[in-house]
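Why does this matter for the project? Reviewers at the last site visit asked to see concrete outputs rather than summary tables. In response, this paragraph embeds two records directly. Each consists of the residue sequence and, immediately after it, the corresponding structure tokens. Nothing has been edited or filtered.
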Amino acid sequence: MKQKLAVIAILMIIAGFGMIHSTTGIMEIVSMLLIGIGCAYLLFLLLTNKSEARNSKTEDD
């Protein structure tokens, strides 16, 4: 499930960069939201995987 959501987040970022220079203001806002949500989810995955790896190391010792 995490892999599918990560792929969706990457596609959201790509779509956001594609729409960022639109002629309408609302599309620029939507593109910024797509980029922000995608980046936030990828950062969340990075931080949670890092803490899980750290916890498993301490349990092994």
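We now turn to the second protein, recorded in exactly the same manner.
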Amino acid sequence: MSQREVNTLIQILCSSFYISRYVDQELPIKELAIDLYKLIGTYGKEAEETLQEFDGYTFEDVEAAIFKSRRNKLKKKLDSLVEKLEFESPEPIRSQNGSGKNSSIYKKVDRLNADTHRIIQKWYSEFKALGGSTCYKFEQEEFDKIKKKLKHIARYQIKLKAMDQVAEEASLEGKYKFYKEFESVPDACSYYEKKLGDKVSRDLLKAQIKDKARIIEDGQEVSWKKINGRINSWVDYENDKPNKKKVIPTD
């Protein structure tokens, strides 16, 4: 992530408030805030920590008044933050006329770097779908204010999404069980190898991953049969390294 990419995302959002569009049609601020967190690199950790808080919650827990009251308060606060951001969105920089005074014309960006990241590409496409052809220029200090507000919104949105996920899974399964998500089996193996330390073995790796992890590839959860085979391959590969620090026991 670069500050330039963060600024570009905020520039797209702020510009969207000043383009011609249908009534009540706007970029979804809550989802954009989540993507800002992903750009910054803090989304995964915060989402994981929030979900872990609810590990073991039962159907009775999510149906209890205390859980529902907390969720309703989160939602009200989140909606209030979004409304405040919309109301306080910064005005673009105005061009100056021949006499040096500000005119009614806003300054536009000559070329927006929208191809640097898939998240930027996604929101610029959304911006163009609303009728935007180019973004406006804003003061850097205004970017910083909006970034702070979006991060606040993202934190509430993460908590609300977590509670919804917990409630859904507890309703279906009777209890919510926290799982740590990984993009690949080697990532999961490396993570639990470090956690297990000197106790690590192939069987303990399998037990940890089967009980506490999910491997998501291309949006789909990988089956245990495939995961099991890949753990065997990973352990064999690690043990065959010429400069291996330690051997992972296989029995």
